[in-house]
Amino acid sequence: MEEAAAHNGTGPGAPAPARPPATPEGMALAYGSLVLMALLPIFFGALRSVSCAKSKNSSDMPETITSRDAARFPIVASCTLLGLYVFFKIFSQEYINLLLSMYFFVLGILALSHTISPMMNRFFPANFPNKQYQLLFTQGSGDSKEEIVNYEFDTKDLVCLALSSVVGVWYLLRKHWIANNLFGLAFSLNGVELLHLNNVSTGCILLGGLFIYDVFWVFGTNVMVTVAKSFEAPIKLVFPQDLLEKGLDADNFAMLGLGDIVIPGIFIALLLRFDISLKKNTHTYFYTSFVAYIFGLGLTIFIMHIFKHAQPALLYLVPACIGFPLLVALAKGEVAEMFSYEDSSTPKDVPGASKEETTEAAKKEK
């Protein structure tokens, strides 16, 4: 897949110099579509994050990010990015991307299946022969037996898996931008739904650290740009700026990295759960942060258009997504409540959690 700009994970792309300049209509359509595609997984992922902790499947349980995890994340991300850069410099790009394609082929099918399963259930007839299955892996025996994987699914889930596999084969064979976006949207929605911040302070640490990470690797070095040129995987949303001229065969893409969706998205989802904890039947902080995300992403596109250079989107998204809700909290006198809120989706509060899981979660939070 050819891309309009060599930028991955940090913002919409810009036209490459060798291509004819995109028309104003084409650019407006591309950027507008990217904004809409970014908002969908954040909105629906946040809604699904409220109830996912009640799931009985271990694979559907949220992964809680603590302050220690948040502080280490930019370092781990930097090491991963640098490692990919070295790999692409030493080894053949073709073979590395072949391995990555197979890896994301499997992950994409699972993510897309998990995403469409709740929606597809509405289309099955009432008399559909739905059978229940359970995939269970344990370790040890007797009293020391420990569950490693406990996944419950049914026939409807298998149908969703089959449909997702069709998209996976399409992506693997053609690398078409629509298949790429279907996987990208699924990854984003699953990330917002299943990655939970344990409190607002952790969210500020995570967003602040990745703010520095994004700015450094985009403006300070060419590492991210080089990796973006070489990396062929559905870790970004793309939309052609020449769609009106070339139709579905268009190849002059604007792009938005999934990190710019998931990272602010999990913070916005946390604020939705905080809204619900207040029991005031309002979603003030959720809608405020949602509008802040639109403002930050719009500002990213505007600055990029003015300077004709790919921008680190978190440079604009982080201050907006943290600043807007904080101003609302100051105006309402709820700053203390906001920063004292602890997410109830940690294992210690999940019905059925074992004593060992509760103890481990408590230690991790400390």
Automatic annotation (TrEMBL):
UniProt-annotated location(s): Endoplasmic reticulum membrane; Membrane
Organism: Patagioenas fasciata monilis
GO MF annotation terms: aspartic endopeptidase activity, intramembrane cleaving
Membrane topology: Multi-pass membrane protein
Keyword entries, A-Z: Endoplasmic reticulum, Hydrolase, Membrane, Transmembrane, Transmembrane helix
Transmembrane regions: 28-50, 70-88, 95-116, 194-219, 253-272, 284-307, 313-331
Region: Disordered, residue numbers: 1-21, 343-366
Protein name (Swiss-Prot/TrEMBL): Minor histocompatibility antigen H13 isoform B
Swiss-Prot/TrEMBL GO biological process terms: membrane protein proteolysis; signal peptide processing
InterPro entries: Peptidase_A22B_SPP, Preselin/SPP, Presenilin_C
